[in-house]
Every structure is written in structure tokens, then in C-alpha cells.
Design goal:
By secondary structure, the protein is α/β, with parallel strands linked by helices. The protein contains ten helices and 16 strands. It has two domains: 124 residues, NAD(P)-binding Rossmann-like Domain (Rossmann fold, 3-Layer(aba) Sandwich); 194 residues, Dihydrodipicolinate Reductase, domain 2 (2-Layer Sandwich), CATH 3.30.360.10. Belongs to the Gfo/Idh/MocA family.
Length: 361
């Protein structure tokens, strides 16, 4: 069986995260950098040179030109969230598969427009949640699914924070209401919500309640907030995200028989290996002076960084569609939509004076 040619990517926009994903496309065995587009030709040229685009790569002074390039199979879109609907829908209508940065939209209603366009055109849609593709994530799922070692999930607590500098807090697109109106909730809370859904097998909670006194900037964009999520059977989850606290990326998931701890779930401490801690049937010694059995550390090694694994999986799905007439994989947009629904509920709870919000699919 002959190997399919690599999937040719066009990068739309030169945001900071696009540097990382351009490198990931270069590292991925089934993808290649074909084009980059910016609103300025100089910026696109400088980006292509700085990020190792091959000599023959196309450099465009507009996003439209990337979408009009017949040799572009897929686009990576690191644009401000407010521009996602316009450009993702346009890409889908031109038959381009879409790797879309998170948060995928400003609301689930907006995201539905993107999904509809992708489904109508038969193109693959995936969001850029990189940690989902790390082999550690599969190992964590194995532990959480083990009824003997972990039991039934009872609670999960997630945190993603980093201490932004004054320039970020003043000028970054993530603090501008017209560009990324969800602020910290969209940028960091997305990952916390995804981890919560992942541990709950993507079963949506019944109720979402935002924590009181979130920190907003003078334009009303969230800089720091928290929320609690509740399921009918008593399961509970919390999330906390902030641009104002030290870098932290934690998951603690507690089951009837075990506990999971992850301390770097979004970006591992090291690129080629990652770990988590698993505890089962924990207890004290006879004198209650120490733990009888300490959590065990599990280390998972990987050849490619998680962002390259994401690109490889996305490219594999695109190749299946392009060369084998397969249908797009619906799992990814379904997970994206559920993540967005919970973000919407947290925002609605804040806007309505911290009312509980009932989740409806």
C-alpha cells in the first residue's frame, strides 16, 4: 500500500501560537507547510522565514488568498475568537479542512454555524487542544476507567493560571472585548472544562454555577474566575482560571477507590515525556503518622511533541477523506461543542449575578 502524500497546510494569521503549530506541522510525518497568509505581506514573509517554511512555500498578503490556493488541503486558524465564524465558514465553503484554535467561538450558537459549514462541505473540523493527543492522556483514561483501581468518579478539580505581565494585561488580544471577549475563561478555562468533560466521559453536567467576585478588566473582560459543575448523581467539578496567578496546570480527580494527580496537563514539563500520579485504596499506617501507600508515579514517553501528534492525527483524518472518500470524524466537533456549552454557562452565570445555569444540549 502506497503512503498518501502529506497534507498541505495553509496558516491563516501569524499569532504567537502559530509559531508552535508551524513547527508541529514541520515535525509531523504526514503534513507540510504550504502557505501562510497575513494582512501584511511583510509580516507573512517574516513569519515564513522565522518559522522554517520551505523555500517553495507561498506567502500571501491576505487570508482569502490562502483559501483560494487550490493546493492548500487544510488551514490552521489561530485568529482572534471573534473572527472564527467568518473565516472558518469561508474555509469550509472552499473545501479546506479546519484546524481551529480554542476557544472555537464566542458561543455554541456561533460554533454551530462553523459545524454546519464543515458538515455541508464534508471537511474535517478539529480544535487545537493539544494535550488531548499526548499518549499520557490515553494512559490517564485507562486509569480513570479502571473500576478496581479508580472506581467511580466523584469529583474533579482543575486549575490553569499564569501570571501575565503588564503589557499582556493591557495589550494582548485575550483582554480585548472586540477580539477575545471570553478572556481568561476562553483562553485558560477551555482546558479546565475539557479535562472535566474528559474525566466524565463527555457527559454534560446538569448545572453550572460561577464563583462570586471574578476579576474583570475595565473593558469587562474576565481576567480571573472560577465555577462549579454538578451532575444529578452527585458528581461535582470545579475550575479556576486566571491571568493573575502563578503558572499552574493541575488536575485532581477523585474516585471511590483511587485518586489521580496531574501537575502539567496542558503543557508537560518536558517535551518528550510526561507523568501523572495514581493512588489506589489509600490509607494511613497503624499509628496514623504517615500514608500506608503513597501514590505511584507513571511516566509516559513520546517521540513527537503533543502538538505534532495533534497535527498528525488531524492530517490522518484529512487524508482518509481526501484519498479514501471517508466521512469526517464527528467526535472532535462534538467534544468542542460540549466544551463551548459549559463556557457559555459559566459566562451566563457571571452575567446573571451568579445564578445556577441549567445545561441544555
Amino acid at each position: 500500500m502506497t503512503e498518501s502524500p502529506p497534507i498541505r497546510f495553509g496558516v491563516i494569521g501569524c499569532a504567537e501560537i502559530a509559531r508552535k503549530v508551524s513547527r508541529a506541522i514541520s515535525l509531523s510525518p504526514n503534513a507540510s507547510l504550504h502557505a501562510v497568509g497575513s494582512r501584511s505581506l511583510e509580516k507573512a514573509k517574516a513569519f515564513a522565514i522565522a518559522n522554517g517554511f520551505p523555500e517553495g512555500a507561498k506567502v500571501y498578503a491576505s487570508y482569502e488568498e490562502v483559501l483560494d490556493d487550490p493546493n492548500v488541503d487544510a488551514v490552521y486558524m489561530p485568529l482572534p475568537t471573534s473572527l472564527h465564524v467568518r473565516w472558518a465558514v469561508s474555509a469550509a465553503k472552499k473545501g479546506k479542512h479546519v484546524l481551529l484554535e480554542k476557544p472555537v467561538a464566542l458561543s455554541a450558537l456561533e460554533f454551530d454555524e462553523i459545524v454546519e459549514a464543515c458538515e455541508s462541505s464534508g471537511v474535517q473540523l478539529m480544535d487545537g487542544t493539544m494535550w488531548m493527543h499526548h499518549p499520557r492522556t490515553a494512559a490517564i483514561k485507562e486509569f480513570l476507567s479502571d473500576t478496581q483501581r479508580f472506581g467511580q468518579l466523584k469529583s474533579i478539580h482543575t486549575i490553569f493560571t499564569f501570571g501575565a505581565d503588564p503589557d499582556f494585561l493591557e495589550n494582548d488580544i485575550r483582554v480585548k472585548p472586540d477580539l477575545d471577549a471570553l478572556g481568561s475563561l476562553g483562553d485558560e478555562g477551555w482546558y479546565c472544562v475539557r479535562a472535566i468533560l474528559f474525566a466524565n466521559n463527555y457527559e454534560l453536567p446538569k448545572t453550572v454555577l460561577a464563583s462570586r467576585e471574578p476579576v474583570l478588566n475595565k473593558a469587562g473582560v474576565i481576567l480571573s474566575c472560577g465555577a462549579s459543575l454538578f451532575w444529578e448523581d452527585g458528581r461535582v467539578a470545579t475550575l479556576y482560571c486566571s491571568f493573575l496567578s502563578n503558572l499552574t496546570m493541575d488536575i485532581t480527580a477523585v474516585g471511590t477507590k483511587g485518586t489521580l494527580h496531574v501537575h502539567d496537563f496542558i503543557i508537560p514539563y518536558e517535551e518528550k515525556k510526561a507523568s501523572f500520579y495514581a493512588a489506589s485504596e489509600s490509607g494511613f499506617d497503624d499509628l496514623v503518622t504517615r500514608w500506608g501507600s503513597e501514590p505511584s508515579k507513571h511516566v509516559i514517553e513520546n517521540d513527537l511533541p503533543q502538538e505534532a501528534l495533534m497535527v498528525s492525527e488531524f492530517s490522518r483524518l484529512v487524508a482518509e477523506i481526501k484519498f479514501n472518500k471517508s466521512k469526517p470524524e464527528k467526535k472532535w466537533p462534538t467534544i468542542s461543542r460540549k466544551t463551548q456549552l459549559i463556557l457559555d454557562a459559566v459566562k451566563a452565570s457571571i452575567d446573571r449575578g451568579f445564578e445556577p445555569i441549567q445545561i441544555k444540549e
